[in-house]
Amino acid sequence: MVGRRKFLHSSFSVAGALLFTKHFPFPAQGDSGADSRIEVLLGEPLGIISPNIYGHFAEHLGGVIYDGIWVGENSKIPNTNGIRKELVDEMRKIKAPVVRYPGGCFADSYDWRDGIGPAGKRPRRTNFWADADSSGAPANHKYEPNLFGTNEFARFCKLIGCQPYLAANVRSLPAEQFYQWIEYCNSPAGSTTLAEARAEAGFAEPFGVRFWGVGNESWGCGGNFTAQEYAVEFRRYTEWAPRYGQELSFIGSGPNVDDWEWTRGFLEELTRKGKGRLRSVYGLALHHYAWNLSRGRTNDWNQGKGDALKFDAVDWYELLREGQRMEGLIEGHWQVMGEIDGEHRVKLIVDEWGPWYKPGSEMVPNDLLQQTPTLRDAVFSGMTLDIFNRHPEKVPMANCAQLINNLNCLYLAHESNFCVTPVGHVFGMYSAHQGGQGLRTIFSAPVINYDRDGKPATFWGLAGAASLHEKELVLTVVNPHVSKATEAEIAIRGASVKSGAATTLTHSDIHAHNSFEQRDAVKPQTSVLQAGAKLLHHAFPPASVTKLELVLE
Ligand code: AHR
């Protein structure tokens, strides 16, 4: 019986453990055998979950653009105007809402003018990543052929039905070029010389780009600015930007992980000329990669990394611990932002996130920063998306790094080969949350205890998020335990359940992944739930991500 068990319980809710104690909702446990509980509070809305937290990121890096997205118009690989068709089809299925482009670090060395006009006349340039590429990397990874530029990206977004998010070059282009890129994208048909150039390429109507990143990682590859210096640049770049009736949402380069001083310094300097300046910022971009699997031994960027495919149970939990830091980062930066921006006009945009492993697991040899996502990365991604789901008032957009052939990718592709990774399947499952009303949900489950090189360590036992869509409740739940199922009683406070279905992504092998040869080794399974009392009692398999879709009455 759960009440008598000496389990350590973690209470996991957006409002913390105190509220859990106050609202402890369950009667003493019956015969169900459940040792965990999930309580969804219909009366405690958190805010609308922005579809854009399910966003993507595509950079001119390794095989992301060339071979991943762009196969070329004359390719035998099915394509639409040179864009890989299978990718577009998959992205439509998951309702991809927004794609960030063209970087990343690449953005601050990119001249958008190189990527417009007739393909044959576009220049070849040294890619920002050229020196990091291996000697065997394809030439078009090192020397940017500019075959895929603004027009092709806009077409790609149109095919998917998503919004473009462009990251502008602050390090090496003047502000004038930022304004002119906006002019190229958004000025009305026939209005300017740049609108005419756009029309000549076949795009008379404006692209209507709303989201603009003002630089990328301006504390590092984007110019090595101090927060104060960058704030001055931000004011200058955004001070006069042409609107053409199009709402523009400027995203400032935000903190690296837990650099609270960057957040504070940027907002202090930005508002030196008055709090009104806060109106010029839609969001601050937060980046966090989970890379340090050294179990506390080192903070060295190269030494600390783990392997994408070869890992043990401790590595599994360590990666999740690194990823779980995201929640504290969101809460911490939000608090710092509130010191200057009491009304919280400025939001957090997590436009790069995901695990980052050492080289060695590339499915396509010589593709820089390519890694093979496994079930571990799917669980990581479910956990991270649920963190965003739990903070709808703070995070209106997030972009997984990166879309294809890179880091925490949803897809792997090479020539005519293609597969959806376990991460891609999680995005498919979680798209059901888009636009729903986030609900406070309390998770209570035995914590996981494990041995971290002779020292005891713990990780939470069950976590997730819920959202309401009229009469349908979507509840996503992650069970991070590598080998134990967790049985939970589920209570929906304020309604009863008429019917439902469960979709689960798991595998008996925690290293399981998809490949070009075995495209479906890891894929979600859906089953109809039995109506009645049992509906509120569910066993979450080990190492799993589950989505419950419950019709309420
Ligand atoms: O996603 C890879 C790189 O990581 C991006 O270019 C950069 O912004 C970050 O450091």
Task: Please supply descriptive tags for the structure shown above.
553 residues; ten-stranded mixed sheet; eight-stranded parallel β-barrel; 23% helix; binds alpha-L-arabinofuranose
Tell me what the structure shows.
The protein is globular. The N terminus is likely disordered. The strands form six sheets. Strands 1, 2, 17, 20, 21, 22, 23, 24, 25 and 26 form a ten-stranded mixed beta sheet that branches. An eight-stranded parallel beta barrel has the order 3-6-9-10-11-12-13-14, surrounded by five helices. The protein has a two-stranded antiparallel ribbon with strand order 4-5. A hairpin with a 2-residue loop joins strand 15 and strand 16. Helix 7 packs across helix 8, helix 8 packs parallel to helix 9 and helix 9 runs parallel beside helix 10. The chain is built from eleven helices and 26 strands. 23% of the residues lie in helices and 27% in strands. It is an alpha/beta fold and 553 residues long. The structure holds alpha-L-arabinofuranose.
